[in-house]
Amino acid sequence: MPSSKSFQKKLKILVIHGPNLKLLGQREPRIYGNVSLPRINQSIQAEAKRLGVEITIVQSNHEGELVDLIGNAKVDHFKGILINPAAYTHTSVALRDALSACGIPAVEVHLSNIYGREEFRHRSLTAAVCIGQVSGFGEKSYLLGLEGLVKALRKK
């Protein structure tokens, strides 16, 4: 007889890549490394499989589209959000408000250490409404963030 765990629905996690991340692998490799977004997505998918969660990955350069994705996340039955807001981290009150209002735990991730870069990047408008933040570990930031998010969701 299958275990009761096998009857549980998989946690659904929304993974959001913000502006300019489609250019990874070509864009400022000394800061962001040489890894492409498709490669990062493969790593995230492998980690999600290992953790036994379902993920949907999206990338957009458009703030309003990101706000809509976050705003619809609960209706779309997502239980958590893993987000790299990229430049919107430092500028978007709209993304911050969407993350705060959606009622879904989120973890913010960054490839680079935003606190070791230009001063304007030291402030994250979105981190305060997330349950955690991981930055500075390249593509591993996503994997560490996903693992932390899943552990937090399973504690609920």
Task: Please characterize this protein's 3D structure.
With 156 residues, the chain is α/β, with parallel strands linked by helices. It has one domain: Rossmann fold. Helix content is 38%, strand content 17%. It has six helices and five strands. It has helices at residues 4-7, 29-32, 37-51, 63-72, 93-102, 140-155, and strands at 12-17, 54-59, 80-84, 106-110, 132-135. A five-stranded parallel beta sheet has the order 2-1-3-4-5, with helices on one face. Helix 3 (37-51) packs parallel to helix 6 and helix 4 (63-72) runs parallel beside helix 5 (93-102). The longest helix is centred in the C-terminal third of the chain and has 16 residues, at 140-155. The chain is globular. The mean pLDDT is 90.
Report the CATH topology name: Rossmann fold
Number of helices: 6
Distance between the termini: 27 Å
CATH class category label: Alpha Beta
The helix fraction, in percent, is 25-40%
Parts with pLDDT < 50 across at least 5 consecutive residues: none
Largest sheet: 5 strands, parallel
Mean pLDDT score, rounded? Answer: 90
Order of helices and strands: HEHHEHEHEEH
Shape: globular
Q: How many domains is the backbone divided into? A: 1
Number of strands: 5
Strand order of the largest sheet: 2-1-3-4-5
CATH superfamily: Dehydroquinase, class II
Q: What is the second-level CATH architecture?
A: 3-Layer(aba) Sandwich
Task: Pick out its properties.
6 helices, globular, alpha/beta
What are the SSEs and their pairings?
Blueprint: H1 4-7, E1 12-17, H2 29-32, H3 37-51, E2 54-59, H4 63-72, E3 80-84, H5 93-102, E4 106-110, E5 132-135, H6 140-155
Parallel strand pairs: 1-2, 1-3, 3-4, 4-5
